[in-house]
Design brief:
alpha/beta; Rossmann fold; five-stranded parallel β-sheet; 14% strand; binds thymidine-5'-diphosphate
Length: 206
């Protein structure tokens, strides 16, 4: 596989969506073909599962299984073929979100999630994960009035605090893959960090 797999993560309201187009263009300007995608979703089946999991109440294990059902489809139809074709895949969220939200936020045992990850990914991991880190209070203020909130965005503050802590623990456990971006600064400040991180990333792979 010659392509590059990049995932974007962070609590709701961290602002990663504001940088999606910029990130895609950054790689295109350097001659890469880019495939933008998202989770849950990214395929016709995945998008239908997204609609269910973002809006219907369910057991946390059901939630985790749906995330991985959508992910299985995403890997098979989008991620693996694009990587095989040498493209840069940029996915708005991937498995770190399952560890952060279903394990950190909702308390599902990490061993359960690990089993699903091993089964579905067969060792495939993003080459780089950009973790947009921000205090959940600031993130919540940004989200207010944006649009109708989904099940995760409606959770209480302590849920979002646990999600953030789980993300930061994962960044500590995977310090090479997961690069933490301080998303509490202004747009230009975030761009500068992204630029630095991406440049270093491409240099280490050259
Ligand atoms: P998000 O990516 O924030 O999209 P939008 O910007 O349109 O709201 O929404 C996806 C939600 O799904 C987000 O709240 C996190 C949640 N999620 C999980 O709980 N587990 C997962 O494995 C994934 C991929 C997402």
């Amino acid at each position: 596989m010659d392509g590059l797999f990049i995932s974007l993560e962070g609590v709701d309201g961290a602002g990663k969506s504001s940088h999606l187009d910029w990130l895609g263009n950054w790689f295109r300007q350097r001659g890469h073909r880019v495939r933008m995608s998202r989770e849950p979703g990214g395929t016709p089946v995945g998008e239908r599962l997204r609609d269910i999991v973002l809006h219907a109440d369910m057991h946390v294990e059901t939630e985790a299984l749906i995330m991985f059902a959508a992910r299985r489809e995403h890997l098979d139809r989008v991620i693996r073929p694009a990587l095989a074709a040498g493209e840069v895949v940029i996915s708005d969220r991937f498995t770190d979100a399952s560890f952060a939200y279903q394990c950190g936020g909702r308390g599902l045992a990490e061993a359960r999630m690990q089993t699903l990850e091993d089964w579905v990914q067969q060792g495939l991991q993003p080459h780089l994960t950009l973790l947009f880190d921000i205090s959940p209070e600031v993130a919540a203020a940004r989200l207010r009035n944006v649009r109708e909130a989904d099940r995760f965005e409606r959770e209480r503050m302590d849920f979002h605090v646990r999600v953030r802590d789980a993300y930061l623990r994962r960044a500590q456990a995977h310090p090479r893959r997961i690069q933490v971006i301080d998303a509490g600064t202004d747009l230009q400040g975030v761009r500068r960090q992204l630029e630095r991180t991406l440049t270093r990333f491409l240099e280490t792979r050259a």
